Amino acid sequence: MGLFDFLTRRPSMEEGLERWRETPDAVLLDVRTPEEYRSGHVPGATNLPLDRLTELDLPKNRPIFAYCLSGARSAQACAWLKRKGYEATNLGGIGGYRGLLETKV
After folding, report:
1. ∠ CA 9-12-14 to the nearest 5 degrees?
2. By its UniProt entry, which InterPro entries does this protein fall under (predicted)?
3. Per-residue pLDDT tens digits for 49-96
4. Is the pTM of this model over 0.85?
């Protein structure tokens, strides 16, 4: 492990989902489009596309774990959520995720 590995090492999607499951009252937020969400999402996820994030109606004491396809939109979502006073964690992208996906809405 190098001196600066902590700057580039982000927990895997699976590790992040485990943290979500272990966190009381946490919300799993899929910030992809409705079409992407319908094509396959993590069971238990709520879909709220990045461009509709201002519609979020959650108490600020509920931790949020966000993901998208590659991690870029969820990073933007988490930055915005943190500015608004939420505790938000970027899980990254579902693109490399190999776990169970749900296709019903």
Report:
1. 160
2. GlpE_sulfurtransferase, Rhodanese-like_dom, Rhodanese-like_dom_sf, Thiosulphate_STrfase_CS
3. 999 999 999 999 999 999 999 999 999 999 999 999 999 999 999 998
4. yes
* Catalytic option among 28, 29, 66, 68: 68
Q: What is the pLDDT of residues 1-30, one digit of tens each?
A: 455 545 555 668 999 999 999 999 999 999
**How far is Cα 101 from Cα 44, in angstroms, rounded to an integer?**
10
Cα–Cα distance measured from residue 52 to residue 27, given in angstroms and rounded to the nearest whole number: 16
Cβ atoms 50, 37 nearer than 8 A: no
Whether 78 is a known active-site residue: answer no
- Closest Cα partner for 41 from 4, 74, 8, 1? 74
Contacts of 17 (CB under 8 A, 6+ apart): 28, 42, 65, 91, 99
Give the integer Cα–Cα distance in Å for 73 and 79.
10
Tokens of 71: 């991690």
Q: Angle CA(8)–CA(48)–CA(103) in degrees, nearest 5? A: 90
